[in-house]
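Notebook entry, structure prediction.
Reason for the run: the old model in the group folder had no record of what sequence produced it. Starting over properly, with the input documented here first.
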Amino acid sequence: MAEALGLSINAISKALRDAPDISEATKARVRREAARMGYVPDAAARRLRTGSGGGIGFLAPDLGGPGVVEMLRGVERAAAQTGLPVAVATAGTQAESEWAGFRRLLGQQATRAVIVGSPGIGQRSPLLQEAAARQVPLVYLNQFPATASQYANVGRVAADWAGAGRLAVEGVASRGHRNLGYVAGRVSGSAWAEHFQGVMAAAEGAGFPSVHTVFSDPESAEDGRAAVAELLSGPNRITAIVCAGDQVAWGVWRGLGEVGCRGQIAVVGCGGISRGAGWEPRLATVRIPWDRLGQRAAEILLAGAGGTEERLPVEWADGPSLFPAR
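New structure, fully documented this time:
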């Protein structure tokens, strides 16, 4: 950049830091060139030079996603104990937009980051490569890219998703249900794959004859409504439906009402977000400790614990959407 503009490296550095002894015209030239080159300040390097602590970045596909606000609240709680700021960015569901969001966090002086993973991101993420090159430690929440375990600076904090699947099946089995439908998450997501494994293992252990499975987006009520017709078309009459998320479970409940089956087929969700959020009826679900997930991820980053992986326990929560088999 210095060579392109005919300026000294020191002048470039000062312009980017908005130093008062650099003219506004020069700062504008430097900023334009930085934008053209896609330059992002290296917060980790700046931290080493200045001795400052940097901040924590929080990157999520969408701040409106299940549990995202609660996880962010947990991160902020942990950061408040040290006085560090929390920078927030959204990432979308594609690798390129995730990478761009991560670079925005670096530009906001984040020197470590909590990443809410997306099942839409493929196995190779440019974010992982850039974090490794810049020596920025990461902790993923729940969804975990398949190649992330290759990086020493990357950890994961997740709910016990397999346990959540098991608890849901145990809940329906305790009410006498034997013919089970399952609205699963797309197995490309690590959390959904673990939930799937938990459901299937528990169903086999309970001696269920079969599990009629439909794959969907667990965050979409509309997907739940659409899944009802397929679930009801199977050879066996199902009496309960387990869902990988509360949103899709609510969609299933609505879909059952539209075909006159509400009250005949029980529904169980996963997440616990529906609690106190105006859902009628209150779903039987498995509570995920969203805020604790975020807090623990930040604590690991602040402790410099590297590639730590932890799983947090989940909790069964009964509700009127689960009733005895009829």
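Summary: The chain has three domains: 2-37, 43-159+291-312, 161-289.
The old model has been moved to the deprecated folder.
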